[in-house]
Design brief:
Blueprint lengths: L1 E7 L2 E6 L9 E11 L1 H8 L14 E9 L21 E4 L2 E2 L5 H4 L10 E2 L11 E5 L3 E3 L7 H8 L2 H13 L10 E5 L3 H13 L5 E5 L3 H10 L4 E3 L6 H10 L12 E4 L6 H8 L6 E4 L18 E4 L5 H13 L9 E3 L2 E2 L1 E5 L4 H10 L4 E5 L2
Parallel strand pairs: 10-11, 10-13, 11-12, 13-14, 14-15, 18-19
Antiparallel strand pairs: 1-2, 3-4, 3-8, 3-19, 4-5, 5-9, 6-7, 16-17
The structure holds zinc ion (2 copies).
């Protein structure tokens, strides 16, 4: 089969490789669409120290079930009693794998397993014609458009959607007694997914503010209807902004700040901004950039602020992410533009164009870059 292999920073090769072996508990997937995410960009530019080259990237993907491993029990008709998945089905892959023995793994929270590995980051991923994955990572994609191509494109967004769901849950979105005001820093694809998840999981009961330096991203968030207020930090200092809203007693802030702030940027002074924004008593800050590196932050304990890491997603978040893709405006993302002739989602055709796709993703001009593999 053909695969795109990252041999080192900026060195991607389009090569013939052996088809993957399908282990007894695996399912072989023919890849349809794969998305490029921030962590892929870091693999590409060499700034991800945890990666060992060579590797086939790609952890955000959809595809067609092609073969079942011996123990996944496919009948003669190609049907499996495993999650009702059959050969030929369109699926989305939840790319976290774990030891499957520890307590978090047994609770389907592989994101908290000490041995969590991500397909496409720690093992070869979906920038190839085929990828073999553990059966437990496979989810049937929802029929949204009734058109395979469109549904496959949408299903490849399930992973970032699950990241958004998980972060909003870490921000207590399902706790009725938690407050109503939410602030999302960053309107990239993850910030948009987080804002959308707050709306989705609260049935629109929360007030969602979203900020980004790039106004075209805020326009996308506005077009999707995933937030109520759009903050331009270039013209408004977020700290002054919160003070203005609070002293006017608007949006339930009452001199206290937001109930939850989701930092979907995780760079520069975004966490500091979050701390100032979430100054309400018992306010929660959700930090999406999690690593082993300790963070140096200044925090006023009098506010009893909680800071939480949000590390990818668990099984339930992934399922909810699929539901959110089907049940909200997110499918409109494919019809939106950043500016004239610059689509919000750009899908490159064919594995041979992976390099171009990576360069395009690094330019940041689209909200999401994808590759159509088959
Ligand atoms: Zn990702
Ligand atoms: Zn485990």
């Amino acid at each position: 089969m053909k695969a795109a292999i990252l041999e080192g920073p900026h060195d991607i090769q389009y090569l013939d490789v052996k088809n993957p072996t399908v282990g007894p508990n695996d399912i072989l997937i023919q890849v349809k669409y794969v998305g490029i995410c921030g962590s892929d960009n870091h693999m590409y530019d060499g700034s991800n120290a945890l990666i060992s080259y060579p590797i086939t990237p790609g952890h955000e993907f959809s595809g067609i079930v092609t073969e079942f491993g011996r123990d996944v029990k496919a009948g003669k008709d190609g049907k499996s009693n495993f999650k009702n998945i059959s050969v030929g089905d369109l699926v989305a892959i939840e790319p976290t794998t774990g030891c499957m023995k520890c307590a978090p793994c047994k609770e389907n929270k592989r994101n908290l397993c000490d041995y969590v590995k991500i397909i496409g980051c720690h093992s070869d991923g979906a920038m190839a014609e085929y990828v073999s994955v553990p059966a437990y990572t496979v989810h049937k994609a929802l029929k949204v458009h009734g058109d395979l191509e469109k549904d496959a494109l949408l299903a490849a967004l399930a992973e970032p959607a699950a990241v958004g769901i998980h972060s909003s849950r870490k921000g207590n979105v399902e706790l009725e007694r938690h407050g109503n005001s939410y602030f999302v820093i960053g309107a990239g694809i993850i910030g948009i997914m987080a804002a959308n998840a707050i709306n989705y999981l609260s049935d629109g009961q929360k007030k969602v503010f979203i900020s980004d330096l790039d106004e075209s991203r805020l326009k996308i968030a506005e077009n999707l209807g995933c937030a109520n207020h759009f903050v331009k930090p270039r013209s408004t200092n977020p700290v002054d902004f919160v003070e203005q809203l609070s002293s006017a007693g608007l949006y339930g802030l009452h001199n206290r700040g937001f109930d939850a702030v989701i930092d979907a940027v995780g760079a520069g002074n975004s966490l500091e901004t979050a701390i100032h924004l979430a100054c309400k008593e018992s306010g929660v800050i959700v930090q999406l950039e999690v690593s082993d590196k300790p963070k140096n932050i200044l925090i006023n304990l009098k506010r009893e602020t909680t800071i939480r890491g949000s590390r990818v997603y668990n099984l339930d978040d992934f399922k909810k992410g699929l539901g959110m893709l089907a049940g909200t405006n997110l499918k409109e993302l494919f019809n939106l533009q950043m500016s004239e002739d610059v689509p919000a989602v750009k899908a490159y055709e064919g594995l041979e164009n992976v390099k171009e796709a990576f360069e395009s993703a690094a330019s940041g001009k689209h909200l999401k870059v994808m590759i159509k593999i088959s």
